[in-house]
């Protein structure tokens, strides 16, 4: 900016304003292998996410585009002030609003600030502003418009990231420095020729004020965002039975290369407190999780986001649904395929217990099926392994509407499955590895459980499992806010957790 020999005006101004159970099958399978350090003692994260430097670069580009779109509108400024000009008197002015005509951020970077949060660096930015103004110099009133060009604008802002006592994200302004090295002011209309003569000495003062205001406005924006985060819910109800606790277990662990976030990821009964089931052993993530990646990738293809979900998430969901009584269902004959080898009729079950057909010839039946114990799931590199512990009581439906108990069986199954990810949807495939049927009680004589077990296992493999796999395929859409979608996601199974690696794409 060119120097001027005009007397420097003294300034005094002020600024106001601112620049169900049906989903459980898939959920358990996905969670067991599938939405920070410093966790409290004895607490292991159910979900752990890592943002890489590539994610920051994506966020920087996305943020600059969003910032430019948001700023291309009129802003209330309500700026008032006064300047004493030797020989002429006191000039008072008002600038009620301002419009950002252009904003060019050609050189900017977003980096991790180790142990703090994020650091935004801007170099060589250019801004062109326009505004309406009103002024009084002595008894003369005037009005018009002005243009303000700022070039070589540089800013360094540090944003601190943390977590409050309730597990909500917290942030604060940890530092800011802004400097505009070239500013040009031009007045239009009114007595613009006079004000343009006074522009050179005004420009220095305005440049200092702009540098100060940039950081002030940034801090105000951070305060607003911080207040909004304080209202953020740390749990989400999934259905009428359970909700999930997605609170943070501690502040993010920020290094120069990445940021890690630990999330509780525990399901619990709605309106009920629960104790962690003693039979579920929380699986802690190894300290070196994600470093190096389980599947070595070239540095050029480092994913933006990595998410690891432990099998403790699935087991907490199983426990919540089990204690809520949601794992219970009545099965009628109309719900079975006609080709299924065992039909819900006394004639069909008479093969396994002849007294049933003798006492109730050719009568319909009904099954009450429930989980007598919490299902258990564990993730391994080959597949998700699940143990299901069920009971089934058979009833005969008499013509007068009476339900007569016939027998009670325990039916336990071992299953395996693999989650799959296609685009922005999650799915799974499953298979039956073993089935065991045990008679508990019977009112119609002994039940040939081995024969029943063989036919039931065959029917499930031929009809039940394929039907379930068709239903599970690409079943659940992934929540991706702000027009984001996963780009080339990959899913891999590991001991105790599943890892999803993906890039991100913005679709306006």
Outline of this structure?
With 508 residues, the chain is of the alpha+beta class.
Q: How is this structure best described in words?
A:
With 508 residues, the protein is α+β, with helices and mostly antiparallel strands. It contains 7 helices and 23 strands. Strands 1, 3, 4, 5, 6, 7 and 8 form a 7-stranded antiparallel beta sheet that branches. Strands 15, 16, 17, 18, 19, 20 and 21 form a 7-stranded antiparallel beta sheet that branches. A hairpin with a 5-residue loop joins strand 18 and strand 19. Helix 1 runs antiparallel to helix 4. The protein is elongated. The two termini are 40 Å apart. The relative contact order is 0.14.
Topology of helices and strands:
Blueprint: E1 10-15, H1 21-33, E2 47-52, H2 53-71, E3 74-85, E4 89-104, E5 107-113, E6 117-137, E7 140-163, E8 169-188, H3 192-230, E9 235-237, E10 242-245, E11 253-254, E12 258-263, E13 266-269, E14 305-310, H4 311-323, E15 328-332, H5 346-349, H6 354-359, E16 365-371, E17 376-379, E18 384-397, E19 403-422, E20 425-442, H7 449-472, E21 476-477, E22 484-494, E23 497-506
Question: The biggest beta sheet, please?
Answer: 7 strands, antiparallel
Helical percent range? 10-25%
| Cα shape | elongated
Distance between the termini: 40 Å
Low-confidence stretches: 1-42, 274-300
Count the beta strands: 23
Q: What is the subunit organization of this protein?
A: single chain
Mean pLDDT: 78
Beta-strand percentage range: 35-45%
User: What is the alpha-carbon Rg in Å?
Assistant: 34 Å
Elements, N to C (H/E): EHEHEEEEEEHEEEEEEHEHHEEEEEHEEE
């Amino acid at each position: 900016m060119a120097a001027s020999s005009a007397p420097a005006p003294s300034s005094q101004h002020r600024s106001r304003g601112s620049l169900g159970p049906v989903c459980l099958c898939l959920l358990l399978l996905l969670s067991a292998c599938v939405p920070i350090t410093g966790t409290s003692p004895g607490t292991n994260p159910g979900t752990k996410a890592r943002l890489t430097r590539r994610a920051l670069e994506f966020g920087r580009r996305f943020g600059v585009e969003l910032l430019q779109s948001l700023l291309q509108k009129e802003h209330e400024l309500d700026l008032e002030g006064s300047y004493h000009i030797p020989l002429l008197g006191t000039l008072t002015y008002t600038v009620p609003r301002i419009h950002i005509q252009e904003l060019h951020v050609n050189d900017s970077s977003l980096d991790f600030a180790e142990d703090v949060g994020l650091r935004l660096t801007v170099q060589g930015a250019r801004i062109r502003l326009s505004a309406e103004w009103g002024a009084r110099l002595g008894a003369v009133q005037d009005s018009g418009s002005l243009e303000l060009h700022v070039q070589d604008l540089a800013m360094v802002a540090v944003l601190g990231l943390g977590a409050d006592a309730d597990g909500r994200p917290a942030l604060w302004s940890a530092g800011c420095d802004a400097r505009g090295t070239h500013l040009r002011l031009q007045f239009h209309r009114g007595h613009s020729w006079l004000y343009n003569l006074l522009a050179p000495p005004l420009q220095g003062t305005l440049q200092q004020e702009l540098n100060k205001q940039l950081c002030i406005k940034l801090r105000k924006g951070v305060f607003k965002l911080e207040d909004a985060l304080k209202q953020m819910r740390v749990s989400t109800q999934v259905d009428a039975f359970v909700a999930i606790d997605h609170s943070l277990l501690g502040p993010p662990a920020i290094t120069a290369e990445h940021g890690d976030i630990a999330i509780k990821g525990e399901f619990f009964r709605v309106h009920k407190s629960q104790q962690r089931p003693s039979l579920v052993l929380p699986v802690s993530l190894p300290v070196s999780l994600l470093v190096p990646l389980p599947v070595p990738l070239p540095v050029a293809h480092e994913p933006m986001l990595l998410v690891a979900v432990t099998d403790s998430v699935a087991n907490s969901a199983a426990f919540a649904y089990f204690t809520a009584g949601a794992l219970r269902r009545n099965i009628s004959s109309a719900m079975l395929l006609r080709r299924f080898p065992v039909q819900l009729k006394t004639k069909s079950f008479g093969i396994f217990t002849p007294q049933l057909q003798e006492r109730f010839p050719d009568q319909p039946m009904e099954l009450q099926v429930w989980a007598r114990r919490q299902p258990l799931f564990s993730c391994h590199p080959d597949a998700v392994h699940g143990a299901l512990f069920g009971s089934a009581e058979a009833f005969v439906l008499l013509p007068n509407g009476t339900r007569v108990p016939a027998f009670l069986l325990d039916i336990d199954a071992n299953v395996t499955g693999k989650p799959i990810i296609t685009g922005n949807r999650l799915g799974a495939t499953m298979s039956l590895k073993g089935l065991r049927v045990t008679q508990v009680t019977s009112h119609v004589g002994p039940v040939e459980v081995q024969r029943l077990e063989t036919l039931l296992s065959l029917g499930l493999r031929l009809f039940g499992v394929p039907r379930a796999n068709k239903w599970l395929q690409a079943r659940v859409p992934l929540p991706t806010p702000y027009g984001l979608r996963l780009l080339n996601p990959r899913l891999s199974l590991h001991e105790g957790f599943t890892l999803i690696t993906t890039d991100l794409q913005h679709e306006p």
